[in-house]
Write a structure and sequence with these properties.
Pfam families: Cyt-b5 (PF00173). InterPro entries: Cyt_B5-like_heme/steroid-bd (IPR001199), Cyt_B5-like_heme/steroid_sf (IPR036400), Cyt_B5_heme-BS (IPR018506), Cytochrome_b5 (IPR050668). It is found in: Membrane. The protein is built from six helices and five strands. The chain is an alpha+beta fold. A hairpin with a 2-residue loop joins strand 3 and strand 4. It folds into two domains: 86 residues, Cytochrome b5-like heme/steroid binding domain (Flavocytochrome B2, Chain A, domain 1, Roll), CATH 3.10.120.10; 46 residues. Bound molecules: protoporphyrin IX containing FE (HEM). The site of protoporphyrin IX containing FE has 21 residues, from helix 2, helix 3 and helix 4.
Amino acid sequence: MAGLRFFTFSQVAQHKSNKDCWLVINGRVLDVTKFLEEHPGGDEVLLEVAGKDATKEFDAIGHSKEAQNLVLKYQVGVLQGVNVQEVDFKGVVDKESNNKEMSAFVIKEDSAPKSIVFYEFFVPILVAGLYFGYRFLTSEDSITY
Ligand code: HEM
């Protein structure tokens, strides 16, 4: 991440007009001035959070992966005190790897229940049946004595 500059919140807060608009998403400082007119959600929403941390607002919309990748295009730096590595993990990379984990989990979930039902339900019944069968046979033996 060489070349990225560090900014404080008060520095970011100075860029809040439609001619100079910065905001923060996941610790990344973005200059979205040129993006204002291109933003599919309109420039007004961006100007409302200009100079501020817009992470919550950005996440609340459920922006697509394309939108998340687009964030990188407008990054001019990171917030001071934020671990750059941490920022990367909180951002796009993390969301993608989470999705992979989720789909792997769902695949596992599909095949698991059948064997669980067999081992957790039928095996104890089989063991109990054998036990009571054995008891029944041995008690009959004792009556004959
Ligand atoms: C650099 C930062 C941002 C980028 C690159 C970006 C990009 C996009 C893109 C590509 C879309 C189209 C839909 C999609 O692909 O998800 C979109 C829609 C939208 N965005 Fe953003 N956005 C940014 C920041 C924000 C922020 C901070 C807000 C709220 C304060 C916001 C509010 C919206 C809204 C309301 C829509 C319309 C959603 C809809 O019509 O369903 N965006 N944005």
